[in-house]
Write a structure and sequence with these properties.
This protein is of the alpha+beta class. It has 4 helices and 4 strands. Strands 3-2-1-4 form a 4-stranded antiparallel β-sheet, with helices on one face.
Length: about 180
């Protein structure tokens, strides 16, 4: 593969993951246009997004909703919990759960500039053809105007998780699986 021909696509907009970020945008930089997908879901269709080749938009929406409903103090980093910001501290276990359901997705570790300081953040990236799509279901934990300052794709075989981190990830995966089983 020719590296120079590789394009990166961040939908619904270039957002915080782009060097050419548009100002004033602060939607969660998910690989899907959530407004359009919600409309499709309300119409009762399982809208297929061609760029995801087989993963339906509804699947990702249902997964996102199950994750958000499963976040708790027991799954957050160092027990941080804020009901007004439930995504706070949930990025790593969420990225692990997304990788469980989308095995082709990689986990990315980055540094996010919040305007006050840098914070460590984790999300997923999924390569589809020559496109690299960000799937970040916890971006809303950051204030508007935050940007990714640096990033590194992690080796899935050498994550070096501590027992406490594995426990948080296992608790979140079990809660998400239970919610998904209730739906089907």
């Amino acid at each position: 593969m020719n590296v120079s021909s590789t394009r990166r696509r961040w939908l619904p907009h270039r957002g915080p993951y782009s060097k050419h970020r548009r100002t004033g945008l602060h939607d969660a930089p998910c690989a899907l246009n959530q407004r359009d997908l919600r409309l499709e879901r309300l119409r009762g269709r399982a809208a297929r997004i061609d760029t995801l080749r087989g993963v339906t938009a509804v699947d990702l929406i249902v997964l996102r909703e199950a994750l958000e409903a499963s976040w708790s103090r027991r799954t957050s980093y160092r027990g941080v919990w804020d009901e007004r910001n439930p995504a706070l501290g949930q990025c790593y276990p969420t990225a692990r759960v997304v990788q469980h359901f989308l095995p082709a997705a990689d986990i990315v570790k980055g540094s996010v500039w919040t305007g006050v300081g840098h914070q460590v953040h984790f999300w997923n990236e999924l390569r589809v053809g020559f496109d690299l799509m960000a799937i970040d279901l916890t971006w809303q934990q950051f204030p508007p105007g935050s940007v990714v300052a640096s990033r590194q794709t992690l080796d899935r075989h050498e994550l070096g998780d501590t027992p406490a981190t594995i426990g948080r990830c296992d608790r979140l995966l079990a809660a998400v699986a239970a919610r998904l089983n209730q739906i089907t």
